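Write out structure tokens for Nuclear transport factor 2 family protein.
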Amino acid sequence: MIPRDARAFIARAELATNSNDPEWPLTEAYAPEVRLELIGDGVHQVCHGIAEAGPAVRALYDWIAASRGRVAKTLIGTSPDTIVNEVEGRLFNGRHVTRGTEIWRFDEHGRVVHNVIYSAVDAKPPTNPAAALRMLIGHPRMALTYLAAQLRERRRAGPRGTPQAPGSGNWTVQLPCAPARRRARTDSRGTRKRPSC
């Protein structure tokens, strides 16, 4: 059962993060048997119960405070037992940006039994060279597989984005005509014919 005012709950979670107050989730929001998951940039940390979640939450809040960070949490949606919000944070005076999603699942008493935090720091478009290099170094097989999939999709789209018939396998590119480089031809009666492209 979620709190009556989901927006107020998310606002309180934002305040706890920005004021480095880990005691709010640990003593007021979490159930004793809470399962906390922190997922981001290749790391997946799982904590079972308050005893394990405590050090992880304190370390997370301390890291945000040490990096002079501020986060903004915005409600995305709710169900009878779940609240979902997005997170955007700016670290080191805005030089780095973290984005992610947070899931809060509640028990019948309104305490959080499962909290999942997904985050990515300085995420960039796949065309960004730094992002591509970061992916290639960290996950070369996945990066190359993804690149191959992108190339296949470009071929499937055809020249200038024109869709091709499925399974046709014909890839043609219309090149501009260059008459100056072509020798004029004549027919059997000696009449000059215009070069064709």
